[in-house]
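job 3f2a | input accepted
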Amino acid sequence: MTKSSTRPSSDRQEARSPEAVMIATAAPARRAVAEQPAGPQPDAALLKLAANRVVIEGVSPEIDGGRFRAKAAVGDCFTVEADIFGDGHDKIDAALLIRRADGEAWKEVPMALVDNDRWRGATIVEENARYLYTVIAWRDLFAAWRDEVTKKHAAGVPIAVELTEGRGLIERTLQESERASEADAGALVGLLADVDGAGEGAEPLTLLLSPDTAALMKRAGIRSNLTRFPRELGLHVDRKAGAFSAWYELMPRSTSDDPNRHGTFDDVIARLPYVRDLGF
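job 3f2a | predicted structure (280 res):
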């Protein structure tokens, strides 16, 4: 009788310790993944998109894309036009900027809507010099609010919320506007006090919609989405005499007062006062 061996056969699974089981079943180490550059943040992208809500194009005069200067004479009324528009129904405002090419301070000239997104501004050029000019435009939030509230009030729509919004625009202007002069800032403070002290009824609306308030906010209001035409265009302002042509203005032989002879320089001398009066 053969005695069976108590030793486990080689093909039988050996017993494992708990530590061995843990090592065997542990998850493999993860590979290091290179960090990818973060994409643009939604807020930044929206802000960049929102900054381009006003469009300026079709500026006139603009000769060959600004390659050549426009021309005028001292004392002329120099007029600039442009197509300016934005998305939505917000009110737009615009201004012409002009300065001497050798200067630094821009003169701002209000522009007015002519028709169908066409705006126009004009200024008198008073010096024989070279100038630069361009156009800026922005969303006028207070003008848009004023227009909307005027229509709602005329239609009998409740406007309590809108009055709060209007007061908020004035308060924001007082806190954030960099264009408000000391006098305008004082006027804004007084306007807020008057609105707050008016209580309920028609008086707050009358204060907020008054022409004086509109003019104050036009001067000092925040220019939302301020946009500038990308080119500064040139203007050459000549002396007044530069607007005249003198070629063949006076022919000596044509100055005779006798149809039977040609004129002489003596005849020209007699006509010099006439030449002087022409403005040369």
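job 3f2a | The chain has three domains: 50-139+226-238, 142-222, 247-275.
job 3f2a | closed
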